[in-house]
Design a protein that fits this description.
The complex is a heterodimer.
Chain A: H1 19-44, E1 47-49, E2 55-59, H2 62-68, E3 69-70, E4 80-81, H3 83-115, H4 119-134, H5 137-148, H6 153-160, H7 174-199, H8 203-210, H9 215-226, H10 228-243, H11 247-253, H12 260-266, H13 275-307
Antiparallel strand pairs in A: 1-2, 3-4
Chain B: H1 13-35, H2 51-58, H3 62-96, H4 103-115, H5 118-131, H6 138-162, H7 167-174, H8 179-208, H9 211-216, H10 224-232, H11 238-271
The chains are: A mainly alpha, B mainly alpha.
Amino acid sequence: MAGGVTSSGVVGDSFAAVRTRLLAPSWLVLLFFMFAPMVVMLIYSFLTKEFRGGVIWSFSLGAYDQFFLDRGLFGDEPPKIEWTYITIFLRSIWQALAATVLCLLIGFPTAYFIATRPVSQRTAWLFLITVPYWVNLLIRTVSMKFLIRDNGPLNEALLAIGLIDSPLALINTDFAVQLGLFYSYLPFMVLPLYASIERYDFTLSEAAADLYASRRAVLFRVVVPSVKPGLVAGCILVFVPSLGAFLAPDLLGGAKNFMIGSLIEEQFKGNAGNWPFGAAVSMILLTIVMLVLLVMARSRTRDVGSAA
Amino acid sequence: MSRAHDVRHMPGFGFLAVVCLLVLYLPLLVVMVYSFNESRSITLWGGFSLRWYAEIFYGPESPKFKTAAWNSLTIALIAATSATLIATSAAIAMVRGGSFRLRSATFGLITMPIMVPEIVTAVATLVFFSSIGFVLGYASILVAHIVFCIPFAYLPISSRLQGIESHYDEAAQDLYANRWQTFRYVLLPMLLPGVLSGFLLAFIISLDDFIITNFVKGAGVETLPTAIFGAVKQGIKPDIMALSTLLLGVSVLLVTASWWLGRKDSATHDQH
């Protein structure tokens, strides 16, 4: 949103003298209520748990130990790798990847189709794609649950037209979660892809076709490499929020499709929680997300470097 | 050139675009239709009725929904207003403040609530409030909302400001306008569509938030999303579908307004 218009000469300095005063409110609010909480969370992940929620202020590696190591029921066996939580992370990564692929499969053709419409129709298409994103995520997820449940409208309709004999068991499956994530974040895929394809020079496609490239070759060997920045951005924008999602797994996945979001939430609800462990899981999730963003930033600078 | 020979045309892509729209809208349309269902059953169609809308306004559960709606609306209004003021001031410093050492660090700080996964922000805010002894309730929800609304207000405002050439404020200052007058009479009128659009986005984001609110609300205080989530845990009832349809209508209305402002915005841009 912010980029694009930035060109040198536009940024002025007529307010340079009062810069500090203008920035003070955002610095104060964000340092105190956004940055400091991150630091406190990091500290909490190294504290001892209080059994009724909260913490005891004494240093402990207990939370990370619980995440990575299995020391047996009484904690006196030689440590082995604890797979419970790693499995939840791996499942979340798998679910987020599957949702990203789904978004790509539907999102790329959609973005391409919109970008090849006459200019006058494009705004309307983009508007239609973005509107659902602004509808409450909870309401969208509940609507999806309502639609795909065992005796819901989707199954009723499919039964009525005779496409299936018995209701599809969609709800509480991996696929339901992927569908929910896909539904939650699809616009994040379409919009950056559209921005890239719109800038793509279609004479390249014509040149390739003149040289007897098939439609498929034009698509995969000319168009796709040219719009790679948008493709990468779209995948990241879907993958990252999917990884920490709570609503789709909780409402559509049921108990056996536990993901990171639910694991974290569970540590802070009621008396069974474990705050240091919840903070540690959050730190591990944050680390993974930051690594993904870092890799993207590096690949982007490399792309820009090779293009120049 | 015929369509079959147009290299831009990819067979099947139009079909997938329609599938995309269908997937996006079908669940919402189904819930909207069923919110007008006379029958208490959520499976059978019993004729058109507004009884579930009457139920959420006058039924036995209506006080709960009204309090939640009041909390949601007042929090969204105060949070979006505060975030817009903070973001406008920051955008002017970032775009018109010349270059300075902490510029990219400040940008990172402002966009931090977007970069960090929401559930991580929720945990961090909860443990922070707990460590400083901030009692959870209306005030804690409000503070958390102001924070995550800032980047959503900032991005459209700074983007609009970048599109306004700095000659305007330079000319005003050459004519002896002080900084306040330059802002009030020169910049603000041109910046207003961006400010309004930022405010509306922040308002919707606040109205929609579930995860962070759920962590920092404490016991007893509910917003519409947390009240709906609590109700849905017992099964999807028709009154919840009516409530969802109303909330959906508000969001669509606001985003249409924001989009329309943005379009006017880009139309005035093109004239430069």
